[in-house]
Amino acid sequence: MSHLRRTCKERRVKQQFWVKGKLIVMENVPAGVCPQCGEKVVKADVGRQVAALLEDSKHRRTARTISVPVIRYTREVA
Question: Do you know which InterPro entries this protein is assigned to (predicted)?
Fold first, then answer.
């Protein structure tokens, strides 16, 4: 984790959240992204704003929606 502080590059990313059983994708979130492992880290103020946006039902009602495929894992591989 200590390498993240030194090497993260500021990017705008998509973050996925499950809220009340529904998948929500938030775009354009400012985050530090580690070029070695891809881990994303957001600053505390960004995290608070993300939480506020997720709690605001008006944003969820007016947001565009996407269709997401769901694939069930099986042990069989073709």
Answer: Znf_MqsA-type
At 6-58, the pLDDT tens digits run 689 999 999 999 988 889 999 999 999 999 899 999 999 999 999 999 998 88
Query: Vertex 68, ends 67 and 73: CA angle to 5°?
Result: 155
List of domains in the chain:
2-62 (3.10.20)
- Distance (Å, rounded) from C-alpha 71 to C-alpha 51? 28
Report DSSP state, residue 35: T
Question: Is pLDDT at 75 greater than 90 in this prediction?
Answer: no
26 phi and psi angles, rounded to 5 deg? -110, 125
- Position 30, amino acid: P
Residue 71 has pLDDT above 60, yes or no: yes
